[in-house]
Request: fold
Amino acid sequence: MEDSKLLQGRNFHNVDLTGSNFGQVQLRGSNFRSVDMEGCRFADISFKDVLIESSELSGMKINGILVSELLHVYQQSKK
Reply:
């Protein structure tokens, strides 16, 4: 088996990867639940077709813009 596929299809539960770095990682079709990503940084990431729900978004920024502000403006436009 190829090294790059050793973790494919695995399940991780109660794992601490604090301070880890990930590069050239495929996570297509993966699910994340009860994950603490506070202080994480993402760059050069494809978030195509990603669904975020029931999540704490305070302080989260996309391209320097607070997501809470984006959602506020969006909700105001719907009135």
Remarks:
- The longest strand covers residues 61-62.
- DSSP finds one helix and two strands in the chain.
